Amino acid sequence: MKKTAYPVPLSLIALSIMAANPVFSADTLEVEHQLDTVTIEADALSESAPKVGSSVSSIDYKDIEKTLVRNLDDLVRYEPGVDASQDSRFGISSINIRGLDGDRVKISVDGVTQADAYGPTTTYLRTGRNTVDLDSLESVEIIKGGDVVEGSGALGGVVKYRTKEPSSFLSAEGNDTSGSLKAGYKSASDEFNQTLTIANRTGKIESLLVYTNRDGHENENHQGDAGSDQTVGVKRASVDPSDTGSDNVLAKVQVQVNHNNRIGFVGEYFHSTSESDLFSESSATDQQSSDDKSVRRRIGFFHENTQTNTLYDRLKWQVDYQDTKTTNKTHRSNNNRLVDRFYDEESTSLKADLVKQIDAHQIRYGLNYDKKSLENLNKDTVSGTTTASRFSPVADANIFGVYIEDSWAATDRLTLVPAIRYDNYKYTTTGDEYIESWGNNENEALTAQLAAEFAITETYTIFGKTGSGFRAPNLDELYYYFANSASYGSYQITPNPDLEPEESLFIEAGIRAQNTYGAAEFVAFYNDYKNFIEQVSLGSSAAFSLGQYTNQNLNHVVIKGVEIKGNLDLSKSIDALSDGWVLNGAIAYAEGDNLENGEPLDSISPLSAVVGLGYDSPSEQWGGKLNLTWASGKKKEDISTSKQWLATSDYNLVDLTAYYKPTQNLTFNAGLFNLTDEKYMNWNDIRNLTNTSTNLNRYTRAGRNFGIDATLSF
């Protein structure tokens, strides 16, 4: 029986009540309980520009703590249209926004672009882009859809992480020291975590140290404990058991040199490990296990100047060094084999952003330059004999971009924001004894967009954005080479260094409303992509009976959809309720087609909706929230022909979170997730499966589980 009786009506409760309320058009614009940030307000000298014409969600550290967020999947749990996919061995590897994921979503930390994904194989080597500990974050901004200012990769959207600042923990002025100790537990992964935070201001110097340690096990599925299940092979229903851990250090020192100049240094170190018994990959004669490690290091310096002059009112420039390395080791008992592979991306980046207010024009402009070194190496040891190879040649990448954006208050009601950007990139490869150089790849792109907002009244605003975007191909798309020959046949994957960058034309438009009683937003979007990079078959031959494959630019992919979200202050809408009651809802729908072959695009997430009812006591001493999530099943007609066996069912989730502050310095947070013990699968976890004998029960998410933490401030 399909469980579709309530999700859509509930997701629209906030909008319905607001529309029916005769005083919704009141002139008062004060909003006391806003759950979902629809747009970012900023003054002329703000560091981040308001994203006019876009749908933007902001999540701050208070939201992260109240909802017991531990990882990227938790972070986007209540954001329809945004999903994180996970794998029992490689963990959370990607975020999907409006049907695009991987390197088609731009991810940055404090303005520093994160390393590309590298996953030429599905078993022995796969790197994700999940090398950030969320306890180190001040806020996360998710921009849905294309964004010219962000440059290459911002096709599906942008995820902007901003790490914590010393000032967030200190008094507004004067010498001060603050600290906190946080400890928590998450039952779904049997994870214990601890975070120590210390901030100080002495004179003009501010400093911050945040250290987080996590120690846990595999993310269990609906089967529960994986350790007692010894089943091997593709029919295994439990996830593979593993021991996981991570350490993260964030250190900052900032100096207010004088009224107009501030400098700062930052250091980040992230280290995660996972050791697994790969029962699902094993057989009776070949036991497999893995030992995986990811490390990200960053050292950075910034200078901010607010001395108004002809060129700018504010200048911020920064230089950062970052090294991200993933090592995947696989042990196989057959022939005492060890497969040891790594991918390392080292970068030095320079970024500058300037702001100048000229009458009604707030002009922002800037540049970025990134120099990257990219390397993969594979070692295969069988019975004591080691051979080495590469999937891709060693490469250097030089990436340059420059942009200008004008936020023009054309009238009191109309804001226009034109923007234009130029990008240039070049990959230079070097052959060696392991692999030949497949040649260089270079290209450039000129992209532009126009965004607009028009205030119809003080309550209602229409907005829209149209423009073009691009994404440069990454290392494994350009240069991945692999040939395999066995008794059952042979195949080859050949590089294509002539790939063109992916291109997009996007348009979105919507209406938002906001007043004392709440806020609501409706947006529709249409994205047209060309030169979409996908692996294709070149056919078979006598030399390669199982076929030859390569990456090519597809002509035409289209993604379109609608999103609705809103929040309502129930305390002001219903007289019988005391202060503190709020209701929020959101729903997202998208569809996508590969017009090259007439097949649906499998990266599109099914229709989903979230409704939340929350309460915060007037004293802010305690509160809680009940969230209801519904997701439609992925129907066969919405899946490409070869993947239709993966069709999924609808599911409903109920989550309950609460917090309590017995004293000003002590806070408890607790959550009960999947309260009804629903058995379900996330579509993006399974859409790349190819073995039809696979037991899909292994890919179910956790049943009923809980989390708890306590924070002591001093």
TrEMBL record:
One of its GO terms (cellular component) is cell outer membrane. Residues 1-25 form the signal peptide. Residues 215-247 are annotated as: Disordered. It is a multi-pass membrane protein. Keywords: Cell outer membrane, Membrane, Receptor, Signal, TonB box, Transmembrane, Transmembrane beta strand, Transport. One of its GO terms (biological process) is siderophore transmembrane transport. Residues 52-158 form the TonB-dependent receptor plug domain. Residues 257-675 form the TonB-dependent receptor-like beta-barrel domain. Belongs to the TonB-dependent receptor family. Hemoglobin/haptoglobin binding protein subfamily. This is Hemoglobin/transferrin/lactoferrin receptor protein. It comes from Marinomonas polaris DSM 16579.
